[in-house]
């Protein structure tokens, strides 16, 4: 049952039965959307009707009854939370956020440089540095003990938020097997409560608005997996297609030179870098299946969608749709290149329904600008600073490109690669 609800399972069903499917799991009506046409109908034509988020028993408990921005129902509270996140956390005017990105991914390059010539677990390194960047951006602190504590909380929450209980499908069986399940939920939420209390106390001691940490949590839970996973996928795809890495490195050498590290001010002069990140986001969207819930009875494509139905928009399948994309399963960044590619006019803002890396409509990702910037800067640092090869004589075609479905679709195996310095200056 759960396998059918993954991005790959839903894509396989769509190939057999069409782009709009009605599935029944216990009491749940589930509608799977897997083509750009139906995505437009849900996310644009009836955006307001599908702007709620569904939530499992675990999600409701861990988010204090949907009190966070990610799972709150559309309404005044949710709009206020989103406004707070956009203006206070993800805004260009919040210097701490962008400074953390700049310094954090500079540290990533230096850490890689210290391991030159040896096989580096690049996936783990990217994830750990991304957590550190976002932790600092959210809380304006370099507290290493707090970071280690939060990583453990984050990992347990990520596991629990992806769990289903039989009561999610059959409410009258919600009592079955709840003792151990409830204990695990309670332990995780208690750890988060204590962590938040410490952050609030520290903010008050420093004269900072104590309301800020609560809004920061959406950033902390969403950022490390999505930004880290996309960066790892971009590097993996280029190592599997060495010609694309060579083209990016040549662009970096031409624009930046080999006598200094790439800087933020260089990013807007690197069109192929932006294409690489767009292509990574197309093939591996941070959230592969976008979760929506019908707030009222609706009709989509001539089919009735009852109030409370779950609507799963399969961004992973849509971003590879054969009717919208040439060579949809092939990593080809040049498709986005201005004056060269057939998809050069597509943007990341959710108005192109064949390309939904950050969702669309009211529930689109509010951190799209910050996330894109962070991935571009990280990929630029890694590609510009180092040449890369796979370990133990592995051929590019032998690189495992499988994924694991969860809140994100991260790589099934961490990416290992061997760096050697390219620059004439120290990192």
What overall form do the CA principal axes indicate? globular
* Number of structural domains: 3
Low-confidence region ranges:
none
Strand content range: 5-15%
Sheet with the most strands: spatial strand order: 1-2-7-4
Distance between the termini: 49 Å
Please write the CATH class name of the largest domain: Mainly Alpha
What CATH architecture of the largest domain do you see? Orthogonal Bundle
Could you state the CATH homologous superfamily of the largest domain? Cytochrome P450
- Helix vs. strand class: alpha+beta
Describe the structure.
With 427 residues, this protein is α+β, with helices and mostly antiparallel strands. The protein has 3 domains: 1-66 and 287-319, Uridine Diphospho-n-acetylenolpyruvylglucosamine Reductase, domain 2; 89-133 and 216-284 and 326-355 and 357-427, Orthogonal Bundle (Cytochrome p450), CATH 1.10.630; 141-207. 48% of the residues lie in helices and 11% in strands. The chain has helices spanning 7-17, 36-45, 57-62, 76-88, 95-114, 122-139, 144-161, 166-169, 178-205, 212-240, 242-255, 271-283, 315-318, 368-385; strands at residues 20-25, 28-33, 120-121, 289-293, 298-300, 303-305, 310-314, 386-389, 403-405, 409-411, 416-421. The strands form 4 sheets. Strands 1-2-7-4 form a 4-stranded mixed β-sheet. Strands 3-11-8 form a 3-stranded antiparallel β-sheet. The longest helix has 29 residues, at 212-240.
């Amino acid at each position: 049952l759960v396998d059918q609800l993954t991005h790959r399972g839903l894509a396989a069903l769509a190939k057999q039965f069409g782009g709009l499917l009605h599935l029944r799991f216990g009491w749940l009506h589930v509608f799977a959307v897997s083509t750009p046409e139906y995505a437009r109908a849900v996310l644009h034509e009836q955006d307001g009707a599908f702007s709620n988020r569904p939530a499992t028993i675990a999600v409701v408990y861990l988010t204090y009854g949907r009190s966070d921005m990610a799972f709150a129902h559309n309404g005044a509270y949710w709009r206020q939370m989103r406004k707070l996140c956009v203006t206070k956390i993800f805004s260009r005017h919040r210097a701490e956020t962008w400074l953390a990105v700049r310094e954090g991914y500079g540290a990533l390059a230096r850490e890689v440089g210290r391991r030159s010539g040896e096989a580096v677990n690049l996936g783990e390194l990217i994830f750990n540095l991304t957590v550190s960047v976002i932790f600092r951006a959210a809380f304006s602190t370099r507290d290493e003990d707090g970071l280690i504590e939060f990583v453990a909380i984050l990992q347990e929450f990520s596991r629990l938020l992806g769990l289903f209980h039989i009561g999610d499908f059959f409410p009258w069986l919600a009592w079955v097997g709840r003792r151990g399940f409830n204990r695990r939920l309670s332990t995780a939420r208690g750890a988060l409560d204590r962590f938040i209390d410490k952050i609030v106390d520290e903010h008050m001691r420093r004269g900072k608005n104590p309301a800020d940490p609560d809004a920061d949590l959406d950033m902390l839970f969403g950022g490390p997996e999505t930004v880290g996973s996309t960066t790892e996928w971009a590097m993996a795809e280029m190592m599997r297609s060495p010609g694309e890495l060579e083209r990016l490195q040549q662009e970096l050498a031409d624009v930046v030179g080999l006598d200094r590290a790439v800087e933020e001010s260089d990013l807007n002069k690197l069109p192929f870098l932006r294409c690489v990140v767009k292509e990574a986001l197309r093939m591996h969207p941070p959230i592969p299946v976008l979760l929506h819930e019908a707030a009222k009875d609706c009709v989509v494509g001539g089919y009735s969608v009852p109030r409370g139905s779950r609507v799963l928009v399969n961004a992973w399948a849509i971003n590879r749709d054969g009717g919208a994309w040439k060579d949809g399963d092939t990593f080809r960044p040049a498709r986005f290149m201005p004056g060269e590619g057939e998809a050069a006019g597509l943007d990341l803002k959710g108005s192109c329904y064949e390309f939904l890396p950050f969702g669309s409509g009211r529930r689109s990702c509010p951190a799209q600008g910050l996330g894109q910037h962070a991935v571009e800067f990280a990929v630029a640092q890694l590609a510009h600073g180092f040449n890369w090869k796979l370990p133990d004589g592995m051929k590019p075609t032998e690189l495992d490109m499988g994924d694991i479905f969860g809140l994100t679709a991260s790589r099934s195996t961490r990416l290992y690669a061997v760096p050697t310095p390219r620059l004439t200056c120290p990192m």
